Amino acid sequence: MIFPKGSSLPGSSPLVWSRREFLRLASACTATSAVSSTLPLHALAGSPGQKVVIVTFGGGARDEETFAPDGQENIPGLLKTLLPQSTFYGQVINRGILGHYVATTSLATGVYETFNNFSGVAPEHPTLFEYFRKGMQREAREAWLISPSNGFRNMGCSTYRGFGSGYGAEVVLPKQLLQATKPGNGGAGSNGAELDRLLRDTYEEPHWNAGTAQTEMQLEQLEKMLRVSPAEFQKQALTMQSADELSTWVALQAMRQAAPSLMWITLHDIDVAHSGAYSLYIDGIQRTDRLCVEIWNALQADAEYAGRTTMFVLPDFGRDSDMNPAGNGFQHHRTGDRASRTTWMMALGPGVRQGLFVERAVDSLDLVPTVGRLLGFPTPLAQGNVLNEVL
Length: 391
Ligand SMILES: [Zn+2]
Fold this sequence. Notes:
Layout: H1 16-25, H2 27-36, E1 51-56, H3 76-82, E2 86-93, H4 100-109, H5 128-136, E3 143-146, E4 170-172, H6 174-180, H7 192-195, H8 215-225, H9 230-237, H10 243-258, E5 262-266, H11 278-301, E6 309-314, H12 338-341, E7 342-348, E8 356-358, E9 362-363, H13 367-375
Helix pairs in contact: 3-11, 6-8, 10-11
């Protein structure tokens, strides 16, 4: 179900005040807010070297386990390292369908897509990647999308006439890359059983119908685009604890090899919450927190990115409130209540005002037009509004 702007969300707890309160508790934010208004506006908007990296903070994360007072211990990296440098939107409303594929795709089109979440189909409206490539006349290697599962493989390119396949993103499916390296799939190595723990494709959906990733194409992408051998990729993967660590490694490798100007990394470990194990959900949040800092630090250490990259971090949506009898708390995102629709976003980079807290409600769809304005390309079908604070 989609909730139009202006309609009130179900659920009784007003989150606005609490969001301001929890940020007051964040000493880092409080300490820097005094200087925020004196910093210059973004000096690089629309400049040729400007880059944008978007990180979605897992599949569904609630305030209670992140920025609310009791959750802050789970996100030391966001709180102490990234928040002081960021403009923070404390109330981002997702009014679309709360399924990860359709919601993440909607974030990327700036339109609440209405296709079946489980279908894995390409969106009807142009994606950010297509707007960027067409508007800026960029090659495919300039726009990369790191996707968490085969079901997300069609997110990088719409079916919209005049856009579509000639302008889509270079889509990377880290788990499918790894699968392709397993013995029996034409790949090298003998670590099949050890790698299986990284290969679970989804926590939620019973089936996907997005087609099968082709082993040959996966191996070609691994070796020619990412410039890593199957054996080396397996060696790296064996050191990792989770699929999101694998995605992050692939993203950093893509930065080193292709230095794309637009990169989208969809992290998804947090969605293990569907298993009902609260400890695994918290582990996922803590890991995602660490990976966000790792990505940011890698950007600062890379000459192609340092000083010219704006990073956005946002969950796709929240999860159900413990107080909603129609749900089962953190485990799912089925009710469409306020807790599951209300989340946050941080933006950081050169010229972005640091320590700024934006209290007014913004919309999940605002990301696309904002990035378009930042990089200098039009996003004509996107329905959100430009967030002027980060320009
Ligand atoms: Zn989920």
